[in-house]
Amino acid sequence: MFKRICLVLLRFYQRFLSPLKPQACRYYPSCSEYALWQFQKNRLIFAFYFTLLRILRCNPLFKGGFDYPKVFKVMQSQNFCFKPKFLAQKPLYFLYIPYKNKGFILLKSFSQKEK
């Protein structure tokens, strides 16, 4: 029951409150998407714990980058995968991937129509 309430609140935040403020999350997926996945796949207490840690890490003192949700070991026996419903609201043509401390790797989608 509490899990459903948290999921409804997160979806409300994503739909109505998040578009009103600038995109400032240092991680992919965003903190709200990360929290949504945690509450869908983990137990309530672990979802709160991992989400709180993620929100505390989302500041200028940390690098950011890709940070997919971790599943608690008890839950790993189940066969499931984190698959986002959408990767971006707009089509991705370029993707920067952090590479060590030297910079980024640039990936380009060649399936786009060139003008």
Précis, in short:
The chain has 115 residues and is of the alpha+beta class. It is built from 3 helices and 4 strands; from the N terminus they run αβααβββ.
Description:
With 115 residues, this protein is an alpha+beta fold. Helices cover 36% and strands 14% of the residues. The protein has three helices and four strands, in the order αβααβββ. The strands form two sheets. Strands 1-2 form a two-stranded parallel ribbon. Strand 3 and strand 4 form a beta hairpin. The radius of gyration is 16 Å and the shape is globular. The chain starts with a helix and ends in a 7-residue tail after the last strand.
Please supply descriptive tags for the structure shown above:
115 residues; alpha+beta; two-stranded parallel sheet; two-stranded antiparallel sheet; 3 helices; 4 strands
Q: Topology of this structure?
A:
Elements: H1 2-17, E1 27-28, H2 31-41, H3 44-57, E2 65-66, E3 94-99, E4 103-108
Parallel strand pairs: 1-2
Antiparallel strand pairs: 3-4
